[in-house]
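subagent[fold] <- orchestrator: predict structure for attached chain, return tokens only, no commentary.
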Amino acid sequence: MSKTLPSIGARRETLATEVRSQIEEMIVAGALEAGQKLNEVTLAGTMGVSRGTVREAIRSLADSGLIDLIANRGAYVNEISLAEIHNLYEVRGAIFAMACASAAQRVGDGLEADLIDRLTENLDTMRGVRDTDDRAAYYELNIEFHDMLLQAAANARAKAIYDNLIKEMHLYRRRGLSVANNIALSLDEHGAIFEAVKSGDPRRARDAAFAHIEKGFGRYMQIAEDGNAGDTADG
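subagent[fold] -> orchestrator:
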């Protein structure tokens, strides 16, 4: 039986999707910085694809919050104002608080048998990298901690919204855990969330989670006022 090959249009669409993912990863990782113009020729050469494919991928990112398309000027990695950052924190705090409350409820109902063990392992590893001052590793573990709680909430729509928020917030958060004291504060707050979830107490988990994000924004603003807005911890 002959194998049916995908149409040229389908292959082009798939390639553009792959290129979009690569560009998104470059922005999230900080390889493309806030305010930087996306050079189609350079990106096409780096990725080994056509300029048209890169253009299509960039256009598909327009609604992601990661880039700005400016008429007659091109595409730029989004620069977020303090007001926009505040809005992102508020939405993120509401979703994360809800997720932690749901996770605590599910733990209390016996529906998340391995969550506490996985959170315990994560926290133990975070304490280890804190002690060795491995800030890059802590950042990744921090993301993992939040992600486990979002998954445990069993609310796919909320997690999808949260994940999109986090992608946008990576524009200024990647260096966010570069202050040792802020790492210690963030870890203490994680511990409070953990204890509330472990005890199966939705209200305490919600309060601890919301406080964690709220305090993170306070830390961000403090260092922003000191003139180094990229260097803060927000959990």
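orchestrator: received. Logging for downstream: Residues 216 and 235 are 6 Å apart (CA to CA). DSSP finds nine helices and two strands in the chain.
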